[in-house]
Design goal:
Length: about 190
């Protein structure tokens, strides 16, 4: 039986997969749901609570249609969303391996943030592990349950992740060189010390 609607996910930190009578492999789980690979180009996210599904569905179906930075949605139900399966490393994996952040990659990250602003996201932030290099070499962001619920005017989680990798200072230097206005806004938000 390969009926993904029979998979049961319960709340936890991370969520717990209580029942999976399918052959679909678990490829990730977080605070709101678990993701299973359906095919080479599709996956399904099963949510522990319907409200999480509703929130992410709102972002992906209504906003995502206009945004190349979000995964494509194929189907959505009360507690699941079938979406594009993104192949490629996460930005976290990529930076852990390369141990450096280029000016070009910094510009791509800034463009992601600008796109989030233009889409009127309340949270213009994302973690490195939720940012995927797709097969075309472009960045896409996953996990949008709180994109319209939590307000954040600067990329706090991104900064935290880059700091853990020892790349925050280099990233900010690139931002200062390429986008001094954005750097100035962030400096005020974080009181960055030079």
């Amino acid at each position: 039986m390969n009926d993904y609607t029979q998979i049961v996910v319960t709340p936890g930190r991370p969520v717990q997969v209580q029942i999976n009578p399918t052959d679909y492999p678990l490829i990730g789980k977080g605070l709101q749901g678990a993701v299973f690979k359906l095919s080479d180009d599709r996956c399904v996210k099963i949510y522990s609570k319907q409200i999480y599904c509703l929130r992410e569905k709102q972002v992906l179906q209504h906003i995502g249609e206009k945004a190349a930075i979000l995964p494509e949605v194929y189907e959505a139900g009360e507690n699941y969303i079938i979406m594009e399966y993104l192949t490629g490393p996460s930005l976290q994996e990529f930076l852990e391996k390369s141990k450096e952040i280029s000016e070009e990659l910094t510009i791509e990250i800034i463009n992601l943030i600008k796109e989030l602003r233009s889409l009127q996201f309340m949270r213009i932030d994302f973690s490195l592990r939720h940012t995927i290099y797709n097969k075309n070499g472009k960045l896409k962001i996953i996990d949008h349950v709180n994109s319209f619920k939590i307000y954040r005017s600067f990329p706090k989680r991104l900064f935290k992740d880059l700091k853990k990798l020892g790349l925050l200072a280099t990233f900010l230097e690139h931002v200062k060189n390429q986008e001094p206005d954005i750097y100035e806004q962030w400096e005020k938000s974080l009181k960055i010390k030079e």
